[in-house]
């Protein structure tokens, strides 16, 4: 069962982003949290930094847009070099049109759900997406405690993906660590974002390898992965 580990640079040193990308060599994607201080109460980075970072690393960029009006901004992140662009369901005015635009520009299209947003209203949209992101904390800050109450939503989403025969990825983001990653994998996640759990350690690349091994073991034993 192929799982992917995406370190979040929100917990990295923003003055040394190229080095911090190098420090997690072997990671599948670099998770880049874009916050506008409106959709979430925090401000991080935007298009110019994504553009520079994409030139500075070979690891593909997984941009998580926690911003208002993603319909306007998301395509610019594809042009800036992101390989995957995630917009929030709560912020998008026209999610189908936006997902199609992201794909047409050559990136993977992904949609995120805050903890209080159910997956069920979006069932028919799933074929338009390459990934669904289930937030396991309220978006805005790194280092928050994992919300166990999100596990049933992860399970229900995995069931929907299987029922529709889709190949899309299921990402979890927020509080993912050695303590929580196995529960996420057992519930059906296959892409894991980890910020503080990776960059807060002495050897971030070794931590990525350890998290991957844990998630692979848990996914291999999970009912949802049988037959994959
Ligand atoms: C939070 C961000 C996350 C954050 C996760 O709103 O979307 O990507 O970096 O940080 P940890 O892994 O520390 O919870
Ligand atoms: Zn994120």
UniProtKB/TrEMBL annotation:
- The first-level EC class reads isomerase
User: Which EC numbers characterise this protein's activity in its record?
Assistant: 5.1.3.1
Give the Gene3D superfamilies listed for this entry. Answer: Aldolase class I
Q: What GO molecular function annotations does the UniProt record carry, in alphabetical order?
A: D-ribulose-phosphate 3-epimerase activity; metal ion binding
Which cofactor is essential here?
A: Mn(2+); a divalent metal cation; Fe(2+); Zn(2+)
Copy the pathway line from the protein's UniProt record.
Answer: Carbohydrate degradation
Q: Does the keyword GTP-binding apply?
A: no
The record lists a divalent metal cation as bound by 31, 33, 64, 173
Query: InterPro entries attached here?
Result: Aldolase_TIM, Ribul_P_3_epim, Ribul_P_3_epim-like, RibuloseP-bd_barrel
Q: Which domain of life is it from?
A: Bacteria
- Family recorded in the similarity comment: Belongs to the ribulose-phosphate 3-epimerase family.
Q: What does this protein do?
A: Catalyzes the reversible epimerization of D-ribulose 5-phosphate to D-xylulose 5-phosphate.
This chain belongs to which protein, by name? Answer: Ribulose-phosphate 3-epimerase
């Amino acid at each position: 069962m192929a799982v992917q580990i995406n370190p979040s640079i929100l917990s990295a040193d923003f003055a040394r982003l190229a080095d911090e990308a190098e420090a997690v060599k072997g990671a599948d994607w670099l998770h880049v949290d874009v916050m506008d201080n409106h959709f979430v109460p925090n401000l991080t980075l935007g298009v110019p930094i994504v553009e520079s970072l994409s030139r500075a690393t070979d690891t593909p960029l997984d941009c998580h847009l926690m911003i208002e009006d993603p319909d306007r901004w998301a395509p610019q992140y594809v042009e800036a070099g992101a390989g995957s662009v995630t917009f929030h369901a709560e912020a998008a005015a026209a999610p189908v049109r936006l997902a199609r635009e992201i794909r047409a520009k050559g990136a993977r299209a992904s949609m995120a759900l805050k903890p209080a947003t159910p997956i069920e209203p979006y069932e028919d949209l799933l074929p338009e997406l390459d990934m669904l992101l289930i937030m396991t904390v309220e978006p805005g800050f790194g280092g928050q405690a994992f919300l166990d109450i999100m596990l049933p939503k992860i399970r229900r989403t995995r069931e929907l993906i299987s029922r529709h025969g889709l190949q899309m990825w299921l990402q979890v983001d927020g509080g993912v660590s050695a303590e929580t990653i196995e529960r996420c994998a057992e519930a059906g996640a296959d892409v894991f974002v980890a910020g503080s759990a990776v960059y807060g350690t002495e050897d971030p690349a070794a931590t990525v390898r350890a998290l991957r091994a844990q998630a692979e073991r848990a996914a291999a034993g999970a009912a949802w992965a049988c037959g994959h």
